[in-house]
Amino acid sequence: MGPAHASVTDVTPYDKIFENNQRWAEEQLRADPDYFAKLSVSQQPDFLYIGCSDSRVPANQIMGLAPGDVFVHRNVANLVNNVDLNVMAVINYAVRQLDVKHIIVCGHYGCGGVRAAMQPKDLGILNPWLRNIRDVYRFHKQELDGISDETQRYERLVELNVLEQSINIIKTAAVQKSYLARGFPIVHSWVFDLRNGILQDLKLDFVQTLHNIQEVYDLTKE
């Protein structure tokens, strides 16, 4: 006997999405009849947000910004890998075509990717991806090994990973050349706390970091 079929009157979670979408679109039009006409013309976001794919951390909502305000890229553990053409294309497009003024790397406490990278397990295809986080641990091993509390050590690795990925952005030619020519974008490092919904700015010193890394990663000769 085959599987039971749901009644045609049953509304599945998938079907509910389209009901929600219809309701949302109607609400936007009630507030502004020209909302979608303006939205469809172009995008001029000031922010590029690079965050984790975790479903609990929606970029626009936690920043309190509307569609069109944020250009978004997300992946497991918010990594900026120099051989990942996806994230490199996003950064180049955001800087050179959209003229974003700020680039934000946002991690979050409770990140499963960071936690997985701390475990002695073979995770298959995730191994080469999460190795980037193991590298962050290696760079900061002395500090992290000095934190006896496992939760605090894990949360500090989340922060250090965000900072290292921010540095990876500053290494790119698109960011270096744009900043020297136009004074933007500025790169920021944030962590989102799932326990209270608050964003924490890790206070990355962009100008000093750019100056320091140009000793090795200078792509402008300026």
Automatic annotation (TrEMBL):
Record-linked InterPro entries: Carbonic_anhydrase, Carbonic_anhydrase_CS, Carbonic_anhydrase_sf
CDD domains according to UniProt: beta_CA_cladeA
Leading EC class: lyase
Pfam family for this entry, one: Pro_CA
Family label: Belongs to the beta-class carbonic anhydrase family.
Gene Ontology MF term list: carbonate dehydratase activity; zinc ion binding
Designated name of the protein: Carbonic anhydrase 2
UniProt cofactor note: Binds 1 zinc ion per subunit.
Residues that coordinate or bind Zn(2+): 52, 54, 108, 111
Alphabetized UniProt keyword annotations: Lyase, Metal-binding, Zinc
Cofactor(s), by name: Zn(2+)
EC number: 4.2.1.1
Reaction catalysed by this enzyme: hydrogencarbonate + H(+) = CO2 + H2O
